[in-house]
């Protein structure tokens, strides 16, 4: 079974679809994710073929939070929609995805940017990378 799901922002102006297994599914502890959402972000990294914006492209605002890393949010409600990494992968939030009933939800298997975590500790057995896993970015 493959994971697939849909997402719409809080105001219902922007939406996307996901299909297939992501290149990685993780908790991101980078400073930008923690400042943006108040906690580590639960995200997946998908190829452009797996991520499809279904509505609201004109309602996106973009911000380059690092060299080649673009964060896209809804300009009406402020919801995180997706990021684009320098390697071209789309990184949407997993928490708001409505997963298809015939598939398996995507859940994190690791922590990234754990070196940026501040005082928060993760109490699980997932591998913890100080940045991206080797060979990923």
From TrEMBL:
Molecular function terms, GO-annotated: carbon-sulfur lyase activity; metal ion binding
UniProt keywords, alphabetically: Lyase, Metal-binding, Zinc
UniProt-listed Gene3D superfamilies: glutathione-dependent formaldehyde- activating enzyme (gfa)
Ranges where the CENP-V/GFA domain occurs: 3-100
UniProt keyword Transmembrane helix present: no
Keyword presence, Oxidoreductase: no
Similarity comment: Belongs to the Gfa family.
Protein name from the UniProt record: CENP-V/GFA domain-containing protein
